[in-house]
Design a protein that fits this description.
This protein has 231 residues and is α+β, with helices and mostly antiparallel strands. It is built from eight helices and five strands. It has two domains: 8-39; 56-218, Glutaredoxin, CATH 3.40.30.10. It has helices at 10-38, 74-92, 115-129, 134-143, 155-164, 171-176, 180-189, 210-218, and strands at residues 56-58, 63-69, 96-102, 197-200, 203-205. The termini are far apart.
């Protein structure tokens, strides 16, 4: 008895092949998105930025003081009122190396949910585009520091401040959020959980000891800042 030929069902084959193609595409998309999410943020190109530590550095003194701050942190504002001018003057005179680190731990205290990241990223934008204006920008942002549980400053406002200190070229970088992920990555890698955080010659110190430690390096009265924490 002859066996009937069974013709290939090309429709089924075609559908199966299409399903395989779609699945491969989806797997590739998931892989790409995961890599994008975990890839390190683009680093600023600036002579004053250490791309490994995120420090924006001023001065060339042997003693190094690192300060980690969040622009939404009110205690950081008090810290700058107490110590900022003295630290910046000492750095300008090359008596110390001042490393400032913009971090983003208080996004949840802005109604937009991202002010700390945007402001930290804006600092890096200015450091890249106008290094000589960076401390002026830093001081101007703190002079106009938003309150916790507010929207924070908008990108347009931060760009206007950049223009005010001669760093108008940073506007597009600020608007694009170019360095917000870099700032977030540095916050995590440096294990910053509270601000201000201060290190003297590589040793992290308690906020209650700041005045004493600064006096050892800077001499004389070194301010009467709060020993509290912004977090």
């Amino acid at each position: 008895m002859a066996v009937a030929n069974k013709s290939t069902n090309w429709f089924v084959v075609g559908v199966s092949a299409a399903v395989v193609v779609v699945l491969v595409g989806l797997i590739g998309l998931v892989w790409f998105m995961n890599n994008q999410a975990t890839a390190p943020g683009a680093a600023p190109k600036s002579d004053i930025v250490n791309t490994e530590t995120g420090a924006i550095s001023f001065g060339s003194g042997d003693d190094e003081i690192d300060t980690y701050f969040d622009f939404m942190c009110p205690i950081c504002g008090q810290f700058e009122d107490a110590y900022g001018e003295q630290l910046q003057t000492a750095a300008a005179n090359d008596e110390i190396t001042l490393n400032i680190h913009p971090v983003s731990i208080l996004n949840r205290l802005s109604t937009t949910g991202d002010f700390s990241s945007r402001a930290a990223g804006a600092m890096y934008c200015v450091a890249e585009e106008a290094p000589d204006a960076t401390l002026d920008y830093f001081n101007l942002i703190f002079a106009n520091q938003p309150a916790e549980n507010s929207a924070g400053l908008s990108d347009a406002e931060m760009s206007a401040f950049a223009e005010q200190v001669g760093a108008g070229a940073a506007a597009d970088c600020i608007a694009d959020g170019t360095y917000t992920k870099f700032a977030d990555d540095q916050t995590k890698s440096q294990n910053i959980t509270g601000t201000p955080t201060v290190e003297v010659n590589g040793t992290r110190i308690e906020n209650a000891d700041i005045a004493t430690e600064f006096a050892k390096i800077l001499g004389g009265a070194s301010g009467t800042g709060s020993d509290g924490s912004g977090e």
